[in-house]
Amino acid sequence: MNAVLPMRALRLLVACAVAACTAAMAADGWPEAARPGAVVLLRHATAPGTGDPPGFRADDCATQRNLSEEGRAEARRLGVLFREKRIAVDEVLTSQWCRTRETARLAFGEKLPRDEPAFNSFLGQAPARREAQTAAARDLLARWRGPGALVVVTHQFNITALTGIGAASAQGVVVRAGPDGGLQVLGTIEP
């Protein structure tokens, strides 16, 4: 009997957490992205395939999955939407992968994006390295105060590790740092 009660409590806790995440995913994140100090975690635009090909090198775009024409159009559309919705973007960080850099450049222009290794893809990395990188990314995001939005163009695995939510190509998850340093999911944005 004693083991049953904690199991029921655990199931209830998990159900509540899933419901909260589902509600946040359904929420329109654009109004939240416009609020001072917002953080938008964007998955790079469409780059066909999964992971990176054998022989991948971060310093050579020819060895990587890159944006398709559809992905380039998505990235440009994101930039238009940020301007139409009057999202003040103060800073744009990207992973060091070409598909994230190109997404950021097409959406936000040449001058704004800056590489941040904490947002590099960690697909295939050892769990300890993934956890350390996610902690570094979370710390960086928790320090953001604005006044405008911080946009981070990164990878689906990174977004999921930070928020518990997957993101489709060119989709964003809007978050804000909580008082405990954790990230509160406020909604999603679509291209």
UniProtKB/TrEMBL annotation:
Keyword line: Signal
Listed name of the protein: Histidine phosphatase family protein
Keyword Signal: yes
SUPFAM superfamilies tied to this protein: Phosphoglycerate mutase-like
Residues making up the signal peptide according to the UniProt record: 1-26
